[in-house]
Every structure is written in structure tokens, then in C-alpha cells.
Amino acid sequence: MINKALIFALLLSGLTLSGQEGKYFFTRSGHIEYTLGGNWSGTKSVWFDDYGMLVHTLTQSTTTISLAGITTTNTEKKLEIRRGKEIWVIDLLSKTGTKTDIGCQTESGRSMTLGKSDEELHHMEREVITGMGATITGYETFLGKKCLMFIWGTTRFSQYKGIPLKSEIAQSGILSMLETATVFEENITIPTSKFEVPGDIEFQEGVGIQDLLNEIEGSGKIQKGNDSGMPPGITFGRFHEATKNLSIPGFPYFMSDDSEGIYLTSFAKSETEQIIIFMENESRFYELAGGGEGMTVENSFSLDGHDAAYIRITQEDDGTPVNSRSLVVRLPEYKAVMYMITTDPMTQSGIEALFRQIRL
To answer: Which of 186, 166, 188 is nearest to 177 (CA)?
Structure first.
């Protein structure tokens, strides 16, 4: 979970290494076994080939989180298969999954890194890490490998050749999620069967971060600008400080942005799993909370004295089926509407608990 979020961030920043379609790691193939600790327990197995263009990740875990007086326990058996420009995320317990096109990220990385030497690519790795706001703290030897250490938000990493071998999320004493490699085999032969997609799974088309950002720039459910053309009644800096440190199990902070009156902060578990918080001028509340094509208002209610709506999103503007959720809250004291969109079907109580962490 944690290392996939990092790979996703580096992808969007252009760190896919040179090759016919791009390379995600500095080593041709490998097998890694992780143990999970902190608020979650279990194992993760990763097999990769062709410099990370082919990846098999199996996670079996149990997570226990106490948030806002509510304790939740979640058991997961998840398989991710990456093959070049496509990724399949499969829930092996429910026999359902998503298939997502990540070609945009792959092509962007290839064009930026094609033909560069290993030394140049290692230099680029450091530039990307610092460019996304992380702090490099040095090197350590782990499992006999020289690992680059850095801190990104509330997460610490020890990374070897683009592959995190240790990572830890720690937030305000609420959340601690550890991922530690116990086995790392490098440049080995991986059977092609590792990258086959199971045939007994019901798939939907997945929504990647690029799809959501495209909607911000385009029209539809999330529109660029607003009726009044005015930003919210608070500064972007205040919004950023209030949203960047939320404790969202398994979703590290990714980025914040201010674009023509729309503020956003995003948290990413992987290429296909994100939670994004938006703030716009108050006038947009009535449009968003009214639902529309592909949007069903499940509940209109009062959240801590504020008008709110819990919405099920079933399709994108082009008709692609999705199963996302949104909480929309009117904040007249800030001349603003704030809304969260989750690519997972989060419950109303779950998304409310996240919202209540925000202290404007």
C-alpha cells in the first residue's frame, strides 16, 4: 500500500526510467516479501520484471483504526497486476476489480528519461524526490543494499533503485503503518504466469488520478471556475494547512493545488485509489448538492450545523461506470463549499469522520 503510493507519485513526476515503454525501477527483475506492522498486520508479496513494467503485488492484511471514537477493522486480500500501460486492481474476497489505463503516466515518463544513463537517472530520482516536497535525509544499508532515505509528508522511506524497502506512515499518534522488506531477490527469472490476470473476476473500468484532474480542467461534475468567478473566502495557504495532515488509513498526502478559484488537496493509495478534497466559492454548493446525470444524492442532511449531501457517483461524463462517493458541505462562514471525492465507495459515516478532522 505505502510503496505503491510512492511509485504513483514518482510516475506523475516523470520518474519512469528509459526504455521502450519506460522503466519504473533501476533493476531488471525482483521478488520482495514485506511484513506489515503498526495499525495493520499481514504480508505483501511483490514480483516484478522488465524494470517494473510488469508487476504482481499480493497484499493480505487486517487493519484496525480508531477515529473519532469509532473503531473499524478491515480484512483485505488484494491483487494488483501491472502490465505496461494497464493496471488491474482485484479484490480476491469479493471477486471484483477495476482495470485502468495509465498510459498517460507511462508515456510522460518515457519521453522525459529516454536515453539517459544510470548516473543521470539516479540524479533525476533525487530531483524528483525533492521536487515533490520530500526531504532527503541520507543513506542506510538495509538487507545488504544502499538505500536512499527521505521523508515525504508524514511518511519515511528507505528506497533502493526506486524500490522502497522500508516505509512508515505516522500521523498524530492516531495512525502507524509499517511496511518492511524481509526478502529481496534481484535480477531473477520470473515466470510469466505471475502477470496473468485471473479469469473469474468481474471488472469495471477504473478511474485514475489523471481522469479526476482532467475533470477539474474540463466540464461536468467538477468544473473549472464557478458562477461568481470568485475564490473561497479564505486563503489557499489556510486551506492547505487545514487539509494536508489528515489521517486517512493507507492514503498518504500527495499534493495540493490552487487553480482559478478551486483549491484541492489529494491523498493517494495507488494509481487508481485516491481521496481528493476540494474547496470552491459557496455558490457551487447548490449545483453540486443537486446531483445530476451519473450522480445520485443518497442523503441531504445537516453536518455539524452545515448543509450537506452524501452523493453516489456512478459514471463519468463519457459514460464510463464508476463507484465513487462524495460529501458536499456548505460553509457560509467562509463563503465556500468543501467537498470530498473518494474513488472507493466509502460510507457516509466514514467520509464524515474524515471531514471532521479538518480544522479551518
So the answer is: 166
Please tell me whether residues 39 and 139 are part of one structural domain. Answer: yes
Q: What is the DSSP letter of 208?
A: -
Measured distance between the N- and C-terminal CA atoms of the chain, rounded to whole angstroms = 29
Q: 109: which residues sit within 8 A by CB, 6+ positions away?
A: 11, 14, 15, 16, 17, 22
b/e per residue 208-247 (b: at least 16 CB within 10 A): bbbbbbebbeeeebbbeebeeeebbebebeebeebbbebb
Read off the pLDDT of residues 262-274 as tens digits, 9 standing for 90 and up. Answer: 888 888 776 667 8
Cα–Cα distance between 52 and 163 in angstroms, integer? 10
Are 328 and 321 spatial neighbours (Cβ–Cβ below 8 Å)?
no
- For the chain, the maximum distance between any two Cα atoms, rounded to a whole number of angstroms, is 61
Average pLDDT over residues 235-252: 83
Q: Which amino acid is at 255?
A: M
User: Which of 232, 144, 228 lies closest to 186 in space, CA to CA?
Assistant: 144
- In whole angstroms, how far apart are CA 29 and each of 75, 308, 348? 29, 49, 42
- With contact defined as beta carbons under 8 Å apart, do 165 and 143 qualify? yes
| Mean pLDDT, range 316-341, rounded to an integer | 85
Q: How many CA atoms lie within 13 A of 126 on its CB side?
A: 12
Residue 47, helix vs strand vs coil: strand
Cβ atoms 154, 170 nearer than 8 A: yes
Q: At what angle do helices 118-131 and 2-13 cross, to 10 degrees?
A: 100
Classify residue 360: in a domain, yes or no: no
Q: Are 67 and 174 in contact (CB under 8 A)?
A: yes
Query: What's the rounded Cα separation, in Å, for the pair 229 and 282?
Result: 11
Mark whether 69 and 217 lie in a shared domain: no
Domain with 84 in it: 2-204
Tell me, yes or no, whether 80 lies in a domain. yes
> Is the same domain home to 216 and 181?
no
Which residue, among 32, 98, 84, 86, has the nearest Cα to 59 in the 3D structure? Answer: 32
198-211 per-position pLDDT tens digit: 988 887 766 555 55
